[in-house]
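Can you give me the bound-state structure? Components:
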Amino acid sequence: MEEQLDHISAEIYQKSYVIVDNFVDKEFQSALLAEQMQLLGQGKFRHAAVGKGGQKQVRTEIRGDEVHWMDADDLSPLQAAYWEKLEEIRKALNQNCFLGLRSFEGHFARYPIGSFYKRHLDQFQAVPHRVVTVILYLNDSWTQDEEGALRMYIPQEDGSELIEDVLPVGGRLVIFLSGEIPHEVLPTKKERISITGWFRNID
Ligand code: OGA
Ligand code: MN
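Here's the bound-state model for the whole set.
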């Protein structure tokens, strides 16, 4: 874990993003997936909205995922275990990258077949407190032809962008600076399950 935390910090410091395969083991991943499926069965997912406050709207031509927010005061044991792992990352990033991260918020997400999320930044004027994005993918298996990649646009020093496509392979964790890396979810050919969250610089 110590080595992994150093690796994560170094990559965030140098490149603003990092991909960690097998961040959770198969057993933990399947348990989280089962929990998400159970919440889904209980009708606890809602179409995700874009915008903030009074501007909030469901616009499936921009994003087609459904989400269920985790309640920090009412986490299941599994969710609490995941938050504890993230807490280690939060501390490491504060120590090594001086990001001043103080809290975490997150939701389960489900992208139905054919859905996507157009290019966006997770930090913008209306949501200034998200500093680091953290995504854990939960699908049992994922192949190239199922598509649905996370496409990140990495800013280069010459002003161009490098495209990095990341398949939502189960157990894979992606971390990036919310205000630095525009990204999108390409249309998926399979139901796509994940937990997305943000470290914030407020409590
Ligand atoms: C988001 C998002 C990317 C992904 O929820 O803001 O960009 O790969 N998710 O699920
Ligand atoms: Mn995003």
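A couple of observations. The two ends are 26 Å apart (CA to CA). Residues 109, 117, 122, 135, 150, 183, 185, 194, 196 surround N-oxalylglycine (ligand 1) (CB under 6 Å).
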